[in-house]
Fold this sequence. Notes:
The complex is a heterodimer.
Chain A: E1 6-7, H1 12-17, E2 22-23, E3 27-32, H2 38-51, E4 56-60, H3 65-72, H4 80-84, E5 88-92, H5 93-99, H6 109-126, E6 130-134, H7 136-143, H8 146-162, E7 166-172, H9 185-189, E8 192-201, E9 204-214, E10 223-229, E11 232-237
Parallel strand pairs in A: 3-7, 3-8, 4-5, 4-6, 6-7
Antiparallel strand pairs in A: 1-2, 8-9, 9-10, 10-11
Chain B: H1 4-13, E1 16-21, H2 26-39, E2 42-48, H3 53-62, E3 70-74, E4 88-90, H4 97-114, E5 119-125, H5 127-133, H6 136-150, E6 156-162, H7 168-177, E7 180-183
Parallel strand pairs in B: 1-6, 1-7, 2-3, 2-5, 3-4, 5-6
Amino acid sequence: xxxxxxxxxxxxxxxxxLNGGIPRGNSVLISxxxxxxxxxxxxxxxxxxxxxxxKGLYISATEISSxxxxxxxxxxxxxxxxxxxxxxxxxxxxxxxSKLSLHKLEFEQEDIDKLINYIGNIVKNGxxxxxxxxxxxxxxxxxRTEEKIRDFIIKFEEIVNKIGATALMVSELLPNAKGYSxxxxxxxxxxxxxxxxxxKRRGDLLRTLQIIKMRGTSHSRAExxxxxxxxxxxxxxxxxxxxVNQ
Amino acid sequence: xxxxxxxxxxxxxxxxxxxxxxxxxxxxxxxxLVNFGLENNKVIFYIxxxxxxxxxxxxxxSTGLPHENIYFIDCTTYSFDITQDPNIIVVESPTMLETIxxxxxxxxKISRQNLPDKSPLIxxxxxxxxxxxxxxxxxxxxxxxxxxxxxxxxxxxAILSILExxxxxxxxxxxxxxxxxxxx
Lengths: 246, 184
C-alpha cells in the first residue's frame, strides 16, 4: 500500500510530510479560505512537474489565464516557455462552458457527462500528468446537489487515476468554516485533503498547512506554518508555545 | 571585548555558541563576530531584532567590512517591506518566529545556489530582544527548531545576549540549548 509511485509536488518540505510525494493517481483537495495560498500551491505543483517532464493542465475558474501567468512571474522557478509551448496549458472554465453550450445555472446529468467527457479528452489527448482545477467549488455551484457533485468528482477521479495523472482540486472555504469543503461531499470522495489556513496569533496572521488525509501513504498530521518566498512555498513547524490551550 | 581569535577557537569545536556581551562593548563584539565570519569564508545571516539592519549596514560600511555576503532578516521595523535591498529581508514582527525560521531556510537555499563554497554563520541579535516579544516557552522552542535545522547543514549559530539585561531564567534556557558559552 505504501509503495505506490509518488508524484513529487516539488515543494521539498511538503514532499517530506507526504513521505515522498502524493501517491500517483490521487486526486487531492486543496482546501482553504481566501489568501491561504491555494492557487500558488497548485501552480507550483504544475511548474515543478513541467521541470521534470510532466505536462500540466490548469483549469481556471477564478482568474483569467493571462493574470494567472502574470502572478507567477516573481517566482524564481517560473519559466514562461512552459506556458508558451503549451507544456502547461491553462483553460478558462467560462470558455469551456461556452464551447459546450453549457449556459444553465444548474447542470443536468447530461451536462455533467458532457463536461467530464470534454475534460477527459483534453487530459488524454494532451498526455497531461498533472492537473489542477481552481476551483472545484466553482464547478460545484452549477451541480448543486450532493449526488451530482459526487458523480462529477468520482468520474473525474476515474479519468485521473486511469491515465496515471495526479490532480489537485481547489476547494474554497469561508473563514471559520467547519469541515474541508463547501458541500461536504468533496472531502469524502477526494483521495487526499491538504488544508491551508490562516492562523491569527497575537495580531500576526500566519499561513498554515496541514495534511488531513492522503490515501496510499503514511503522512504527517501536524500543522505547519507556510510562507510564500521567491523560491516558492516553504514550511516550518508551528511553534506551540502560544497555542497549548487551543 | 571578545576577540576574533576566541570566536574562531570556540566555533572550531562547537556549532551553537551563546555570546554574553556587556552592553559597553556589544557593538564591538558584533564586529568581531562578523569579522570572524568573513575571514573564515562564511556567508552571514544576521537576524536583527534589536537594531534595524540599515544601522548595521552603515556601521559595516564605515568600518570597511565588506558586506556583500551579509544577509539581514530584519524584524525591528514592523513593516512589511521597507527596502529593495536584496540583502535585507523584512519580517513584520519579532513574534513571527516561524517566519524567521523559513527566511533562514530560504537564505540557506539561495546561498547554496549562489555561494556554494561558503557555509552560513547565523547571528541572532539578540536573545534579549526576542524575549521582550516572546514567551520563554516559545522562544526556547524556536531555538530548538533552529538548532535542529542548522546542525545538519554545517551552519554555525551565534546567539547574542546583553549580559546586564539577562534574567536568570533566560540565561539558563540559552545555556541549555547552546554547545558552549562565551562571556565577555
